Amino acid sequence: MTDGEILAARESKDIILDPFDPDRLEPASYDIRVGTWAFTSSVKEKLDLSRKGVLIIDAGEFAVLEARERIELSPIVAGQLGLRSEYARRGLLMLSGPQVDPTFRGILVVRLVNLSPKPIALSYEAPFLTVQFFRLNKPVENSYNGPQQGQTGISSRDMQELAETEGLTLGQVIKTLSTLAMEVAELKGSVNRLVWLVPFIVAFGIAVIGVLVTVKH
Length: 217
Description:
217 residues, two-stranded antiparallel ribbon
């Protein structure tokens, strides 16, 4: 759908985005914002981002967070969800499914992992997901009835699943690889300096030997 079609679908209630921010409407999509609650594999406690202001996802860390907007789709509209490119380029990966089924209603909850060697910050209400909407040729015959139907945010099941994830192990691996890379770079620099130093050492040695030979004669 184009931006105009999305607005028209809102008027007809085929798409409900609450609260709707017109500044987040793109030419053919809508940007979903960071919601109130989040949970990370290292902190292991529910974080109120409306008070904290920002979520820091460390290197190798898993996080689950909820969207600011509540979404409801009619039987004739489907959505496709994706991470905004600015975060994907920095190493953030979305682990949740991209499909938003027709007749879905609720707050989106997504799982993320930071695959970069540096922390990534997500501010409260910052646009971090983008959703494209598609009008179907005809309404679906079966309504969505999955476990996410009607969800109001992060559940205890979401937190339990993330708490059991070996996020810290992955983080340690990434940090170790980052440290190793820096050490290799430093070693390479030392070797390069040594390469430049060797000719001077050899020349100095030859000069000393020459002087000794001259003295003996």
